[in-house]
């Protein structure tokens, strides 16, 4: 009850209250963006995204599927990557960002093809979260090695 009261006061003063779901939703939306970039969003990609979310955020299968569904809706409504990348940039350290990029590569490579649109999504993201092309290359190689 007190928590709701404090949130209410913060809203009245124009202060933002932290959204505990912001990081998981942003990560999930970026994974969905990578999966949808080639306009083929498969059950295999959905399953991999769910497994990534379960491991990353310690979610149940149902929780991961629900998070992915909410991220799908958010990603479909978004005009660009900025609203998601901003959350990731502010919330994750370098290792966390590298893990995200590797996970995005894992999603992109589920069909064993590198589509230029999927690569472009990752390339744009690494610039927005202050990583380098060499970081993306290293993450892609790790993702390729883990798929073997």
Automatic annotation (TrEMBL):
InterPro entries according to UniProt: DjlA_N, TerB-like
Gene3D superfamilies: TerB-like
Entry coiled-coil feature ranges: none
Entries under Pfam families matching the protein: TerB
Transmembrane segments: none
Domain Co-chaperone DjlA N-terminal: 26-140
Record-given protein name: TerB family tellurite resistance protein
Organism encoding this protein: Parvularcula lutaonensis
């Amino acid at each position: 009850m007190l928590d709701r009261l404090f949130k209410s006061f913060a809203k009245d003063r124009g202060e933002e209250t932290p959204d505990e779901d912001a990081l998981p939703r942003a990560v999930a939306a970026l994974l969905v963006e990578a999966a949808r970039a080639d306009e083929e969003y498969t059950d295999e990609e959905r399953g991999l995204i769910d497994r990534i979310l379960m491991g990353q955020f310690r979610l149940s299968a149902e929780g991961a599927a629900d998070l992915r569904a909410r991220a799908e809706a958010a990603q479909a409504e978004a005009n660009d990557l900025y609203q998601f990348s901003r959350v990731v940039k502010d919330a994750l350290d370098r290792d966390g960002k590298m893990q995200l990029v590797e996970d995005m590569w894992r999603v992109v490579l589920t069909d064993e093809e590198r589509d230029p649109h999927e690569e472009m999504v990752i390339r744009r993201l690494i610039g927005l979260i202050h990583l380098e092309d060499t970081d993306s290359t290293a993450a892609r190689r790790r993702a390729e090695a883990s798929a073997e």
